[in-house]
Write a structure and sequence with these properties.
about 15% strand, binds adenosine-5'-triphosphate, binds magnesium ion
Length: about 250
């Protein structure tokens, strides 16, 4: 069975998609067979791996529209080794569709997926909707990127309330991989303050080594390549390699 990791934060622009695409590519570069599933109709994961989603391209959202849809039918290879994508449908309206929280877990349990991949990474929309619930129900681990900003701490708090509900009920196997500071700089006082708030509330060990501010991450989406390939010498590529190693240790070696 693949390990499923959901990247989530209620707050928009917290770095979910940046982390999903680049952690997926970094784990794939280490030899894991990775399936990146985009559940956000902004459909940015496809852009990040250089894929164009056309009107007739099958997507993750088909699952929420039709009983007949199969996730495996929407898997696309990418130009990068060991990395495949299920794109999102830019026309999907969040809040619409089938109301079943178990659809994604069921779809990921199909043999075509369980035999072909070691890791599934789920990118989620910035909302607490049925798609997010599906992702939390399907996942083994949850990773929460946040920009160390006071407003973002509130987003983390809202998400953790939902997480505790899921962990204490319908998906008791869900574990917290950690909180991931994005664009953090130790010399910025506010960043230090928010990071220590998160540490105080959730424990030091819950905070992962962060991803520093690097404009090349934004550029890499324009170029359609994960940072590992777009700018292998950049500090963001270095940070994502460290994150992939830490996640590997946590998920497979502990
Ligand atoms: N470490 C970083 N350094 C520089 N820019 C970054 C970094 N992380 C993210 N960004 C930029 O911040 C913006 C938001 O990131 P991203 O799209 O990954 O967030 P998101 O949480 O997926 O947003 P949404 O909630 O809209 O889905 C993007 O323009 C991205 O390029
Ligand atoms: Mg996003």
């Amino acid at each position: 069975m693949p390990t499923t990791l959901v990247v989530s934060n209620r707050k928009g622009g917290a770095g979910k998609t940046t982390v999903s695409v680049n952690l997926a590519a970094a784990l794939a570069a280490l030899g894991r067979r990775v399936l990146l599933v985009d559940l956000d109709s902004q459909s940015h994961c496809a852009m990040g791996v250089g894929i164009k989603v056309g009107k007739t391209t099958p997507t993750s959202h088909d699952l929420f529209r039709s009983q007949e849809a199969r996730l495996a039918a929407a898997i696309l290879p990418t130009a990068f080794p060991n990395l495949a994508l299920v794109p999102a449908d830019p026309l999907f309206e969040h809040g619409s569709g089938r109301r079943d929280e178990g659809l994604l877990a069921q779809a990921l349990a199909e043999e075509e997926i369980t035999t072909a991949f070691d890791v599934v990474i789920l990118d989620t929309p910035p909302s607490l909707d049925i798609l997010l619930l599906n992702a939390l129900m399907a996942a083994d681990w949850v990773l929460v990127p946040y920009v160390p900003h006071p407003l973002s701490f509130e987003g983390v708090r809202q998400l953790t309330r939902v997480l505790f509900k899921i962990i204490s009920g319908p998906n008791q196997g869900l574990k917290l991989a950690g909180f991931l500071p994005m664009m953090a700089a130790e010399h910025i006082r506010q960043h230090r303050a928010v990071n220590s708030d998160v540490a105080r509330q959730f424990g030091d060990l819950r905070i992962l080594p962060g991803i520093r501010n690097d404009i090349r991450l934004a550029e890499s989406f324009g170029a359609g390549k994960p940072i590992h390939y777009y700018a292998p010498q950049s500090r963001a590529a270095e940070d994502f390699a460290i994150l992939a190693a830490v996640i590997t240790e946590k998920v497979w070696n502990s």
